[in-house]
Each structure stands twice: as C-alpha cells, then as structure tokens.
Write a structure and sequence with these properties.
Layout lengths: L43 H34 L1 H5 L1 E3 L2 E2 H7 L1 H40 L1
Antiparallel strand pairs: 1-2
C-alpha cells in the first residue's frame, strides 16, 4: 500500500478581500497632535464626583431622617415633654410633628443646593471631557 499525498478534491485559493468602500485617508502630520491624556475611565474626577454625590446624599438624608428619629425618640422616651403644652394650648408633640414638613423642605433645598454647588459642575466637566475623548477617538 502506498500513500498518495495529493488531495482528491480540487484546491481553490481563498477569494480576494473586498475593496475598501471609502477612499484611503491621507497620512496625518504629527505637528498638530494634542497632548496624550489618560482615558476617562482612569480619571480621578469620577472618584471626586462619587464622593461629592455621596456627601450630598448623606447630608440631605441625615437632615430629614435625623429630625424624624429625634421626634420618635422623644415620643417614646419623653412622653411628658410631648404631651406638655407649648404655645396657645397646643401640645409640644403636635408642634414637633408639624415641624417635620419644613424640615423635609429644608432637606430638599439642601440637596438641591449641594447639587448645584458641588455635584453638577463636576458632572458637567466630566461630560465635556468624555465628549472630547469621544471626538479624539473618532478622529483616529
């Protein structure tokens, strides 16, 4: 028995690659190149933004929930204070309960203030840098 190394089928070369559908780009000159920066994902601004947002949430949450917790603790452990009269015969507990609404509004106002002052400028700057990075990436 002998071995025949030739294939029993006709060998065809692979088809040629299709021609490009766009004109080739001229070589770019390196004289107008922007300085190389780290990509946005490794940027420390994201950590700063997370920290500012975390601080904003904690401040507003502790304002509203802290007052409500104080009200509950006083209701449970100081019933004499809560049932005592404060102004015009109204019980102190009722006045503290009615003060919960303005404290909630204060927490909302504090949240919006810190958003405008700390979080939004950072987010806008990161958004602009991301758009700039996307344009640079598309130009390559």
């Amino acid at each position: 028995m002998t071995y025949d190394p030739s294939p029993s089928y006709r060998h065809r070369p692979p088809p040629p690659p299709p021609p490009p559908s766009y004109p080739p780009r001229p070589p770019r000159s390196h004289t107008h190149r922007a300085p190389r920066r780290d990509p946005l994902g490794h940027h420390s601004d994201l950590r700063i933004l997370r920290g500012a947002y975390r601080w904003q949430r904690r401040t507003a949450t502790l304002t509203a929930l802290g007052y409500f917790t104080l009200f509950l603790v006083l209701s449970a452990y100081a019933p004499g204070l809560m049932t005592g009269t404060a102004v015009a015969g109204l019980p102190t507990g009722l006045l503290l309960a009615l003060a919960q609404l303005p404290v909630t509004w204060l927490a909302i106002a504090l949240y919006e203030y810190t958003a405008r002052r700390r979080v939004d400028p950072l987010a806008d700057r990161i958004r602009q840098e991301a758009a700039l990075d996307a344009r640079r990436g598309a130009g390559r």
